[in-house]
Amino acid sequence: MPVFHQIGHDSENLLSLPELDLFAGAILSPLNYTPGETQQQISELKKAGKFTLLDPYLYHPQSDKGQLPKWSYYPKDVDTADLSSESWWSPLVIGVSKAAAEIDVDAVCSPAIVPKIFSDDFYSQTIEHGNQLKDALKGTKIRPFQTVIVNLPELTAPDRVMTIASIISQSDIEDCMLAFISNVEPRRELGDPEELKGAMRLISALAHGGQRVTVAFSSSDMILWKAAGATNCATGKFFNLRRFTLSRLLEDSSGGGGQLGYWFEESLLAFLRQSDLLRVQARGLISLASKSNPFCDQILAAIPANKASVALGWRQFLYWFADVEHRIETGGVSPEGLVKLADENWAAIEKSKPPIYMEERPNNGDWVREWLRALVEFPYS
């Protein structure tokens, strides 16, 4: 099934590249763009045959504002309102549906705010707001998506996973937009096997219940979500919208986060800085997938010329993201096979003479073994 690009700062034109044609569409960001700018993006995307989905992006409406105040649905009383009041939510949901119709988007996510406590009542209210959105969209061609925000540490308890899945299954909407919140900083891979297994069990339960699950804010962990049965996965330009975490909201969203150049290497399932790329290349660990990537040669040519390659790194990762999803769907590769090979390659690096020390200390492949555990164990736990 297709993948989506979550548009963030300075990434609205990436899907116009022919190399990224495997992306089915884009998730639009009112946090970064005004209604007029977003409407222009929709027009260009539709000309290219791409699907457009509006995320209201009200996860932290009181602190993460950006361009949101320029949107008609953004509540004027957001700083003082009782966010638990249904009388406050009802006009908000209607406002989101009207804004979606005004910009002629193909689909829109239900508004959802990150709670202080992820209680059963929170999930029930989230589903109710999604059902209200579906009712508000009657008579239009706009497709509703049910937004569900889930706290990853909570999913280590199997009973809690099934309780959450049971509540979500009460949604009248077939499409579920799943956003995981983690305590892991945005620029590191998820590595807790119990949390990963819980997330995969949740995806699997929803999929088996007949819901189409789109996992938002994905990075290379998308291969785990696909293994669990996710219909779609969505990503930003790697580190900028790589994962939805509380700590990400502390970054300067106006500039899209830190602008560092990275190369994503499938053979290690890792993001490599320039110096690390040269070390890995010297050991013959550049994968066939990377060599086939249309942005590979451009990056390698930019290094000796001392040219900036940040934007090329975005494109290289996005190409890999769409390409590997296609290969998984068509049976060209398997998630377990990808992770096993990466685990073997990290083991080879540890034993190599002289050893390879990556520029960033946490970039040591530890997460790969945990991913392998999660893939093998989640169906039986």
Beta percentage is 5-15%
Q: State the helical fraction.
A: 25-40%
Indicate the low-confidence ranges by residue numbers. Answer: 240-257
Gross geometry: globular
What class do helices, strands and sheet pairing give?
A: alpha/beta
Q: How can the largest sheet be summarized?
A: 8 strands, parallel, barrel
SS element count, helices:
12
- Using only C-alpha atoms, the radius of gyration works out to 20 Å
What separation lies between the terminal Cα atoms? Answer: 27 Å
- SSE order in H/E notation? EEHEHEHEHEHEHEEEHHHHHH
Mean pLDDT: 91
CATH architectural group of the largest domain: Alpha-Beta Barrel
CATH topology of the largest domain: TIM Barrel
CATH superfamily of the largest domain: Copper homeostasis (CutC) domain
Count of spatially separate domains: 2
What's the arrangement of strands in the largest beta sheet?
1-2-3-4-5-6-7-8
Please tally the β strands and state the result. 10
CATH class of the largest domain: Alpha Beta
Give the topology.
Elements: E1 3-6, E2 23-28, H1 35-47, E3 51-54, H2 86-103, E4 107-109, H3 120-136, E5 143-151, H4 158-168, E6 175-181, H5 193-208, E7 212-215, H6 222-228, E8 232-235, E9 263-265, E10 270-272, H7 274-282, H8 288-292, H9 296-302, H10 310-329, H11 335-351, H12 366-377
Parallel strand pairs: 1-2, 1-8, 2-3, 3-4, 4-5, 5-6, 6-7, 7-8
Antiparallel strand pairs: 9-10
Helix pairs in contact: 2-3, 3-4, 4-5, 5-6, 5-12, 11-12
